[in-house]
Amino acid sequence: MRSIELALVTFFVGAAFLAAAYALGIFSAEVCWTGEGEAADYEIVSCAFFAHVRKQVGFGFALNWSIGLCVLLPFFVYCVSETIRQGSAAILEMSRRRMFVCTDWSVPDTETIMGLLRKRQRLLVIIVAGLAGLLATMFIVTDFERVTGQYYVSPALLADARLGDTDFEADWSIAAPICVYTADASAACTALTRKIEMNGVFAGVVYLYLPFVGGIAAVTFMAAFGLFVRFVFAADLRAANIQVVPDLRSTDPRRGFEVLERFFLCSVVACFVVFAMGYLVTLQNVYLRSESPNIFAFVLPLLPSVNPAVLLRELETTIRLIFANGSIIVVTSFGLLFLAVVLLSAAAVLGQAATAARARVLRALAGPQLDPGFEAYLGELTPAVAERRLTASVAWPRGWPLVNVSLVWLVLATISLLFVVIGFYLVVAGLAFAIRHACARKTTT
Predict the structure, then answer these.
(1) What is the rounded CA–CA span in Å between residue 14 and residue 29?
(2) What is the 3-state secondary structure of the chain?
(3) How many CA atoms lie within 13 A of 214 on its CB side?
(4) For residue 298, what are the contacts with CB-CB under 8 A and spacing of at least 6?
(5) CA-closest candidate to residue 56, choices 334, 319, 381, 298
(6) Which of 101, 95, 98, 129 is closest to 115 using CA atoms?
(7) In a structure prediction context, what are the per-residue pLDDT tens digits for the chain, which is 445 residues long?
(8) What pTM was estimated for this model as a whole?
(9) Cβ partners under 8 Å of residue 302, min gap 6
(10) Measured between alpha carbons, how far is 158 from 179 in angstroms, rounded to an integer?
(11) Over the stretch 14-41, which tens digit does the pLDDT of each residue have?
């Protein structure tokens, strides 16, 4: 199945969840609180009295669920699939360009190279299935029961709930138990009580689907990225007495390594999408504990406050929430970790490997007499032409704009976690940048 087809399937599954939420009456549900003073003092009540503080908590307005399921998750699945496809295509193209050679400068056939890769891919499938299943199951069992499940079993637990509680999220997932517990309920709240079992099943299925699909895709991405990087630049080829050399016939100054650009591009974009998904979780959790009536009113101001005292207080509250709620810091940290690992590989490993490959050929050219195997490898190229092309080559990705831009975004991403309102605009701009580059089609010669 092609990458775009996988993304479309993921999108339609997410759209089906949105349709189910609409049918259950929790697409645009509201939960209300009463009380005065700080948001942490609010108690959960019904929506029967309009004097109470009204809070939009519907599934469709929870961006980490609606946008996450219908936009970010399909986009991430697309990037993971493209990372694997572009990695295999890059290795195939490097083999076709004779960039893999044995120690005697003979060129192994493409089937030998791809056979080594397929051997590693089988092991990858086993590792991915085991790790993703274990991690997702652990997350579902602990997170769903703590955040949602217990309130369907015992709605009376809501008696001690507070808006500022870091372990409590009064959103669509527990709207039905809230209505069951509340004595004076609105018509919309009463309708939810008739579907409490269906709401519980829906919440369980959504919590099951997103961690499993997201977890499998994330582990697959990192395993696939590590597989291709290790295969080309680490021990896998050396164990078979195969080494990487530049493509002396390429007109690109990167001398063949440009075929890896799409692979690293998809990897960098995938990392940013993972971070964006984690950021939306942070955004939703901070919004739920704020006094804003809906998510749009919460992110509308570009700056949280011009008052330094208020700004510092909001910063302190956000940091405390992030580190108190484990799911926030874990999901978002994964995105930052992925991005750092990919950038380190692109900027350091690839650059070092390209430099080593160039030095390998230069050493062969520097001898008083060329090795017969090396002469046969050069073919119609003269030593002078080969040396001139190597001298004019560049150790990509040094100076690659996407690496420089990504390093800037790594800093901005950290800022967006501390100032979530500013982060909303940074993430939107970053996603536009990522989509533009992910959809770009470049050809190399």
Answers:
(1) 19
(2) CCHHHHHHHHHHHHHHHHHHHHHHCCCCCEEEEECCCCHHHCEEECCCCCCCEEEECCHHHCHHHHHHHHHHHHHHHHHHHHHHHHHHHHHHHHHHCCCEEECCCCCCCHHHHHHHHHHHHHHHHHHHHHHHHHHHHHHHHHHHHHHHHHHHHCHHHHHHCECCCCCCCCCHHHHHHHHHHCCCCCHHHHHHHCCHHHHHHHHHHHHHHHHHHHHHHHHHHHHHHHHHHHHHHCHHHHHCCEEECCCCCCCCCCCCHHHHHHHHHHHHHHHHHHHHHHHHHHHHHHHHCCCCCCHHHHHCCCCCCCCHHHHHHHHHHHHHHHHHCHHHHHHHHHHHHHHHHHHHHHHHHHHHHHHHHHHHHHHHHHCCCCCHHHHHHHCCCCHHHHHHHHHCCCCCCCCCHHHHHHHHHHHHHHHHHHCHHHHHHHHHHHHHHHHHHHCCCCCCC
(3) 30
(4) 287, 290, 292, 421
(5) 298
(6) 95
(7) 688 888 999 999 999 999 999 988 888 887 776 665 565 566 666 666 555 667 788 899 888 899 989 999 999 889 888 888 888 888 889 888 988 888 888 888 888 777 777 766 666 666 666 766 676 666 666 667 777 888 888 877 777 776 666 666 778 888 888 887 776 667 777 888 888 889 888 988 888 887 777 777 777 777 777 767 766 665 556 666 788 888 888 888 888 888 888 888 888 888 888 888 878 887 887 787 777 788 887 777 655 555 666 666 666 666 665 555 555 556 566 666 666 667 666 666 777 777 888 888 888 888 778 888 888 888 888 888 888 888 888 776 655 656 666 667 667 766 666 666 677 777 777 777 777 766 665 444 3
(8) 0.81
(9) 421, 422, 425
(10) 10
(11) 999 999 999 888 888 877 766 655 655 6
**C-alpha span between 393 and 358 (Å, rounded):** 9
Rounded Cα distance, 272 and 332, in Å:
10
The arrangement of strands across the sheet holding 43-45 comes to: 43-45, 30-34, 53-56
